[in-house]
Amino acid sequence: MANKKTLKGYFETGDIPNQSQYHELINSNLNLNETGTQILVGTLSSSFLEVENHITSSGNISSSGIITAEHILSSDDIVAQGIISASGALHGNSITIDGNIYIKSVGFVEVGGVSQILFQSQQTYFQNDIKLPNNKELVLGTDSNYKIGADNTDRLLITSGSSTSQTTLITYSPHNKTLNFNGDAITTNGYLKATNITASGNISASGTIYADNFQSTGGDVAGINFTDNLLITGDITASGDISASGVITQANGLVAGEGRLYFSEWGGSNIHLKKAGNNLALTNGGLTTSQITASGTISSLDMRVGADGVPNGQIRFGVPGVKSFPQFIQSEANQLKLERGNGETLVKYNFNQHSDGPKVVVTGNISGSGNLKVDGSQVDFTNLPTSDPSVAGRLYRDGTDLKISLG
To answer: Distance between CA 128 and CA 122 in Å, rounded?
Structure first.
């Protein structure tokens, strides 16, 4: 074969080309009907080229437009500084892309016989979905430490570590709409908005947690605990108990309806306050041992002891049932007694205004350091002794005479 300059020299004016020169002319041109291999030493430039068989080039194949082919096979690298577009699959032991890659179909890029794609560009565009089957993973990180994939239950898993010691960081289950974080904490510099947040551990914040509702799941759980102060600007509504190991302080409180305020434990015969008509009653399930105890002063403009119409009120001082501690008790209607703690009567006061009997009955002696003045018209000495008691100052009756003993 010869180049164009040589071939032109065979056909100058007056030349008679020989057989060999005609052979060179024919072999130096492409034959469209030739089925064998035709070798192009220089560059082939064409506005449109359609080839049904192979094109083999030891140099470059370049195009300012689009090269369309069912298969492109290279024993070395295929380098593209622009766009590589494929309607089928791209196969290669090493595919390096300095620009953008567009995958417009359901085909794939296979590198080294495994399902891996290496992107070195800053941006990668996919016009259709990227689909990974179950138990296939999208590997991230220089050491392939982080992986995104789905298991056989259609859960999305984000894991870290090697295949032998993988740790699941995040699990998302679309069927029950749960997102589980297995790390130590979820940190955000902005807002975290969710329909439901379920945590087997703690939910903590260095700032404020805002919510329209705080609700415990109930059952055998510890409930909602606060180590610091709890500031509520609105209402607290509870169908169950509100308990505190310390003091509950409030500016205003309301127990609605026929509600009760229990002390120590809820229900039964435990001591509680309840509404009784227009009054507040302290009771303990029908027993008679309810007490109000104060280390300071109890003051009242109107204090009532006992139920209306029932003579059962009592005021005790000290320990009940102990002889040395007195008590006031109304055991009968229109009668008030001062007793010892063991029930022994000291003074009985009758305040029935229609009774002719004694108003005050004293069991035992009456002594005074001052004067005794009687404004009544009668002094009854019915039970005076009739002989000298030999105690100085004692009265006794001698016949019809009233005498004072000299001792």
So the answer is: 19
